[in-house]
Design a protein that fits this description.
Layout: E1 5-9, E2 12-17, E3 22-28, E4 31-32, E5 48-49, E6 61-63, E7 66-68, E8 82-87, E9 90-96, H1 99-102, E10 109-117, E11 121-130, E12 136-138, E13 141-142, E14 145-147, E15 159-162, E16 169-173, E17 179-185, E18 192-194, H2 197-200, E19 205-207, E20 214-218, E21 224-230, E22 234-238, E23 245-251, E24 271-273, E25 278-288, H3 290-293
Antiparallel strand pairs: 1-2, 2-3, 3-4, 5-13, 6-7, 8-9, 9-10, 10-11, 11-25, 12-24, 13-23, 14-23, 15-18, 15-20, 16-17, 19-22, 20-21, 21-25, 22-23
Length: 297
């Protein structure tokens, strides 16, 4: 895999690995924000999820009468992206189909990712294109992890604040990662979700068809990491027990429902592109330090 590409804008710095197209560092305003990955907790930083998001029933998808196994969250996170263009504060990466990808997902595609860094913001813009001659299903996700805590102080007292009130119950996730029929309550009071280890033990909190188009990870001192999404209907929060990171995720698709036995044509929450068509999605990250934020919600 190629070495990460370093982006710089004033006092901000980001590093993006062409292997997986994955940002592995984001520092701004004196704060080191992105989880760097480690063997003890989670080796990733912010993987790109494509052409599926989540888990497949039985670990496989069926298309054209054949079974394919693209893996959990798809293969893009393990693929080598080509560097199309690079400037001091921006980077353009591309992944296209190949014999290796078609053995996992039988469609012709192009996935472009453009990264742009400013002193307080980091924007990741995606374009998915169907370069084949038939309709193409896909799902896309961005899975960034942030240090917890990312500001001064301990882990206790952090919260997530949604832009709009969300339903205070999320789908139960089965042992094999599928969307269960039941729901479990979460201590969400309108827009504010206090964070605690037990809340995130064992499964992601999946806000499917979320009302919010943005959310903030807020420290007790008022410092905040904001994530705004474009053309991503689903949001999720995830960590591992006791791990010093929180993932705020944006998805167009999600895991199969428990008991799903259909083909790719039946798979819920997939997007479909006509031949020659393209779709755009974006995630915009912003940081506000404590001295500019105050301690309110």
């Amino acid at each position: 895999m190629s070495a990460p590409v370093r982006l710089v804008s004033a006092d901000a710095e980001a590093c993006v690995a062409p292997g997986g197209g994955e940002p592995v560092a984001w520092r701004t305003g004196g704060a080191d924000l992105l989880w760097p990955g480690d063997a003890a907790h989670w080796s990733r930083s912010s993987p790109v999820l494509f052409p599926i998001v989540g888990h497949l029933a039985g670990g496989r998808l069926v298309a054209d009468g054949r079974s394919y196994r693209p893996g959990v969250h798809g293969f893009a996170r393990d693929a080598e992206f080509a560097v199309v263009g690079c400037r001091a504060d921006r980077l353009h990466l591309r992944l296209v189909d190949s014999p290796a990808t078609r053995a996992l997902y039988p469609f012709a595609f192009r996935l472009d990712i453009r990264y742009r860094l400013t002193p307080r913001r980091f924007t990741i813009a995606f374009e998915v294109a169907n370069t084949g001659r038939r309709a193409m299903p896909y799902a896309l996700g961005f899975h960034p992890g942030f240090r917890w805590p990312f500001s001064a102080g301990a882990r206790a007292g952090h919260r997530v604040v949604f832009a709009r009130p969300e339903r205070a119950a999320v789908p139960q996730i089965t042992a094999d990662g599928l969307i269960g029929a039941g729901r479990r309550p979460v201590p969400l009071a309108g827009r504010v979700l206090p964070l605690a280890d037990r809340l995130l033990d064992g499964e992601a909190l999946c806000f499917l068809d979320a009302a919010s188009r943005s959310l903030r990870f807020v420290a007790p001192d008022g410092a905040a990491i904001a994530m705004a999404v474009e053309n991503f209907p689903h949001l999720a929060l995830w960590s591992r027990p006791g791990a010093p990171f929180l993932c705020m995720e944006a998805w167009t698709g999600h895991s199969d429902p428990a008991g799903f036995a259909g083909t790719l044509a039946d798979k819920p929450s997939m997007r479909w592109l006509a031949p020659g068509a393209a779709a755009r999605h974006a995630v915009r990250l912003a940081y506000r330090p404590a001295d500019a934020a105050g301690a309110g919600a």
